[in-house]
Amino acid sequence: MLVLGIETSCDETAAAIVRDGREIVSSVIASQIATHERFGGVVPELASREHLDKIVPIVEEAFVRAKIGTESIDGLAVTVGPGLVGSLLVGVSYAKAMAFALKKPLVGVNHIEGHIYSVAFENPPVEYPALALIVSGGHTNLFHIPEPGKYKVLARTRDDAAGEAFDKVAKMLGLGYPGGPIIERLAREGNPRAVKFAIPRMGDGLPDFSFSGLKTAVTKHARESGLQPVTNGGVPSQGIKDLAASFQSVVVSSLVGTMERVAKEYRPRTLIVAGGVACNGALRAAASDAAKRLGVRVYFPSLHLSTDNAAMIAAAGTVKLQAGESADLDLNADVTLRLQNIDLEDEARKRAGVRYRL
Ligand code: KG4
Ligand code: ZN
Questions:
Q1: Last residue of a domain, one of 250, 267, 300
Q2: Same domain, 134 and 260
Q3: What's this model's pTM, rounded to 2 decimal places?
Q4: Which one of 67, 141, 311, 340 is least enclosed by Cβ atoms within 10 Å?
């Protein structure tokens, strides 16, 4: 089955053609980093305009690289949420028009489910139950997946997403955008034990994440030790490198420590670590060590599939298309779309009184 995937939920315009949910025939990604970097974050209005400019040539390029005509695909999959509404709408409208014109089935895909399916390429098939840690600029979630397509959230962030914390800390230290790759590079030359930060823990004992306090602690440390932010591409001091390494080390310990703790209870056969922050080598190393201790396999997407792409959307969509799903033309973007679809009451009870940012 050949599926065209389309992804425009945030700041990447992407299209991909995937065979049988496991083989990438073509994958094209137009990043908007150059547009947003001077603002230190994604500007939603600029993002949707750029998606509008790029969507047609990017989808065309996916077909050119695949050396097939549009009539050769068996269906389409498009990200419907969560994400920025103006950005999502570009992909959703385009996909609906194309599906209608080609008379092919179309399915909507949750962006987070897409990240989970990013490990479908270049890894053996996932064995269930699985535990998936999805860490990106917008999300930090740990999912229990007892069988394909069934999701329960076991942990999530109460404030900033992990990638957001990397981005904010980098911005504060004058390092540039996006912060994750820059911090990782500097951390390689820094001492992760130079600054002692506490691993954030929840007062109510739930295995949730919180990175906002850590971000404040980094700011405070920088101020109190007189570390100057880097200006105009200047060379970062050893103090900044040590701070970057110490910050990264706490984020990694928090993510992997929680995943390991939860894995002991849920006993998964496969661990999945995906999303933009899964590019991070320290996180991959720590998750691999944890998997060894647990005696389970761990799958990561290859680096180019860790950040946003359309191949993962096509892979997730293939499962739905194979099951005979097909959306109507009233398919719409859903900014706050959630992935959990089992044990909802249980979840609500457990989390009563806990307030989350979306
Ligand atoms: O999945 P993604 O491309 O977009 C969202 O869905 O958010 O993730 C982007 C995020 C950014 O916050 C970026 O700083 C982070 O992933 N990131 C990293 C690394 N590479 C990208 N974080 C830590 N280490 C990295 N090497
Ligand atoms: Zn993403």
A1: 300
A2: yes
A3: 0.94
A4: 67
The ligand minimizing its distance to the Cα of 277 is: 1
Alpha carbon nearest to ligand 1 atom 1, residue: 276
Cα-Cα-Cα-Cα dihedral sign, residues 302, 124, 323, 60 = positive
Number of the ligand closest to the Cα of 211: 1
What's the pLDDT score for residue 239?
Answer: 96
Which residues does a 6 A CB cutoff place in the pocket of ligand 1?
A: 10, 136-138, 163-164, 166-167, 178-181, 184, 275-277, 279-280, 307-308
Closest CA to 115 of 351, 348, 305: 305
Whether 331 is covered by a domain: the verdict is: no
To the nearest 10°, the Cα dihedral for 16, 17, 18, 24? -70
Residues 239-265: tens digit of each pLDDT? 999 999 999 999 999 999 999 999 999
**Phi and psi for 268 in degrees, rounded to 5?**
-70, 160
Assess whether the previous peptide bond of 181 is cis (omega < 30° from 0). Answer: no
Q: Among 277, 312, 313, which residue has the most ligand 1 atoms within 8 Å of its CB, making it the best to mutate?
A: 277
Q: In this structure, what CATH number is given to the domain that contains residue 91?
A: 3.30.420.40
Choose one of 13, 172, 279 to mutate for the ligand 1 pocket test, by most ligand atoms within 8 angstroms of C-beta. 279
What is the CA(30)–ligand 1 centre distance, in A? 16
Both 74 and 133 in one domain: the answer is no
Within a domain: 337: no
Question: What confidence score (pLDDT) does residue 204 get?
Answer: 87
Measure 137 CA to ligand 2 centroid, in angstroms. Answer: 7
Measured over the CA atoms of residue 290, residue 292, residue 294 and residue 299, the dihedral's sign is positive
pLDDT over 90 at 358, yes or no: no
Residues 268 and 130 in one domain: yes
The domain of 50 spans: 2-117+305-322
Domain presence at residue 330? no
As for how many domains the chain has, the answer is 2
